[in-house]
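fold description:
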Amino acid sequence: MMARLITLQEWDEKNFSRPHSRRTLYKWAREGLIQPRPMIVGKHYQVHPDARYVSNRAQIDRLKTANRMINDSADALVDTEIDPLALEIFAHGCTTTETDVH
């Protein structure tokens, strides 16, 4: 069951001690600085309650790549073997050692 989405303002209150302006929150949403990305419902952004602010551009790029790989259709993935460990590394920027690889 999917968690109930909340507004950007509710998310901001939950995650920061000082409130940000609506303009800043909408900019963060547009630029992908909140992950998973908020969605527009009607005229307003809604976000997963556990979303987080990501300020590191490299981490944002890894998350976008992982999300694209996960969201590709099953037909596109038939000929492609995607290692779950690789998806985890893309999503979180973890490093691995030779002993971790199976």
Q: What stands out?
A: The CA atoms of residues 8 and 46 lie 6 Å apart. The mean pLDDT is 78. The chain has two domains: 6-53, 57-97. Residues 57-97 form one domain.
